[in-house]
Amino acid sequence: MLSxxxxxxPTDDDLRAGTLGRQMREYNYRFVGEYPAQQPxxxxxxxxxxxxxxxxxxxxxxxxxxxxxLWVADDHRGQGLGTHLLGWAxxxxxxxxxxxxxxxxxxxxxxxxxxxxxxxxxxxxxxxxPGQYLAFMKKPLA
Length: 142
Prior knowledge:
Layout (H helix, E strand, L loop, with lengths): L11 H6 L1 H14 L6 E8 L5 E10 L2 E9 L8 H15 L4 E7 L4 H6 L3 E10 L2 E9 L2
Parallel strand pairs: 3-4
Antiparallel strand pairs: 1-2, 2-3, 4-6, 5-6
């Protein structure tokens, strides 16, 4: 049934062209109408020597801010840097049209921090890693 097809990893040109994502968006548009393209949300924090001490990476897609990474160096934790980075990302998300934010965090990471920032856990995968859960969290940005 699939014998007439070939399978191969995409080329760099294929990835740059974004053809697969464009095809998916065109399919989605038939159901929910057009929506803005994915927009990156990125910020780094560096000390006076230029050392990276924190940063956040995410994107806004279909009116949601998706936080992929929020990291703060051990020697800068507890000083408000994480709160600043997350607040900046949420503000940037709002500017880009996001109505909500979502992220996931492992048990040993920062679930308590995110709860303090107004996030609520809505799902969890127990034993994502042996003995450790992965929590999924969200927050309205209105």
